[in-house]
Amino acid sequence: MPVKRLTAAKSRLAHPERAALALAMAQDTVAAARDIDHAVVVAVVVVTNDRTARADIADMDARVVIIPDLPDTGLNAALTHGAAEAARRWPGAGVAAMSADLAALRPAELRAALLAVPPERRAMVADADGTGTVMLAATPGSPLAPRFGPASRAEHVRSGAWDLTAPLGPSVPGLRRDVDTLDDLQEALRLGVGPRTRDILKTPGAAGHSKGTIIARPLAYQRLTDVSHDVQPAVVPDSLYGS
After folding, report:
1. Which of 42, 177, 187, 206 is the most buried (most CB within 10 A)?
2. Tally of CB atoms within 10 A around 25
3. What residues have CB less than 8 Å from 20, skipping those under 6 apart?
4. Half-sphere exposure of residue 48, counting CA atoms within 13 Å on the CB side?
5. Residue pair 112/172 in contact by the 8 Å Cβ criterion
6. Which of the residue ranges 1-10, 29-38, 89-98, 217-226 would you say has the lowest mean pLDDT?
7. What are the backbone angles phi and psi of residue 224, rounded to the nearest 5°?
8. pLDDT of the residue at 21
9. Are 103 and 20 in contact (CB under 8 A)?
10. What is 26-79 written as a DSSP string?
11. 79: closest CA among 45, 30, 111, 35?
């Protein structure tokens, strides 16, 4: 998961706590991936040069690995770097890159998407708008070959990635709901955001904005385990792809 320097993150999100909100959404996204059973997700790799993000995310769990963004030349370079490091640490495992602004992501949604990746293929899931990408996965031995950016869904499909969006249908709304604007945030709140995002929105002055009011008490956020986005690599064991 490449996490931008927080001062530059989420530039389209006109919110008074934009940097804190970007970090909170990344933490909730990491937590959702981390809470998936070890047979599906071995580790979550976060690629960032932001000191605050490194410190706060590193404290979350031993399965969360923080590495510096050595290329420091943009999202796709950071993803390629993270995928290569994951392959070095966990040889024989697949890799999935996903947006880190998925404030309403449930572990079960991401788990279902990972399990839907066909053997010996790359696969992707589109964002709620239908033109971007929220998850790109590569099976063991396949290069991740990320093409995130404008019209990335079409770019990934054109590069050979299998589109899982229609097969998954309406079962993964939190996975598809990335948050770039206040309207996106309202929709994430309707779905139910994670605890860190919810806490930021409860801070004094954080709930209001010029287009209306962000509701600070969303629908109940149901965790599916007892422990508890840009893009995040999750390491997937080889055994998943033989079934």
Report:
1. 177
2. 31
3. 6, 200
4. 33
5. yes
6. 217-226
7. -95, 0
8. 97
9. no
10. HHHHHHHHHTS-TTT--EEEEEE--HHHHHHHHTS-TTEEEE--SS-S-HHHHH
11. 45
Separation of alpha carbons 192 and 106, rounded Å = 10
For residues 103-114, average pLDDT: 98
Tokens for 26, please give them. 């990344």
* 115 alpha carbon, distance to own chain's centre: 16
Tokens of 178: 């990335």
**C-alpha pair distances (Å), 158 with each of 122, 142, 161, 206:** 12, 16, 7, 41
State which amino acid sits at residue 226.
Answer: D
Confidence of residue 230 (pLDDT cuts 50, 70, 90): very low
CB atoms within 10 A of CB 191: 17
Position 209 scores a pLDDT of: 42
User: Are the CB atoms for 147 and 137 separated by under 8 Å?
Assistant: no
Contact at 8 Å (CB) between 50 and 6?
yes
Task: Please state the pTM of the whole predicted model.
Answer: 0.85
Find the Cα–Cα–Cα–Cα dihedral 71, 72, 78, 82, rounded to 10°.
Answer: 60
Cβ–Cβ under 8 Å, residues 7 and 236: no
Helix (H, G, I), strand (E, B) or coil at 94: strand
Q: How many Å apart are CA 76 and CA 94, to the nearest integer?
A: 17
The tokens describing 243, both together, are 């079934």
Q: Are 101 and 32 in contact (CB under 8 A)?
A: no
d(CA 214, CA 125): 27
Cβ(69)–Cβ(49) below 8 Å:
yes
Tell me if 88 sits within 8 A of 67, measured CB to CB.
Answer: no
CA distance between the termini of the chain: 27
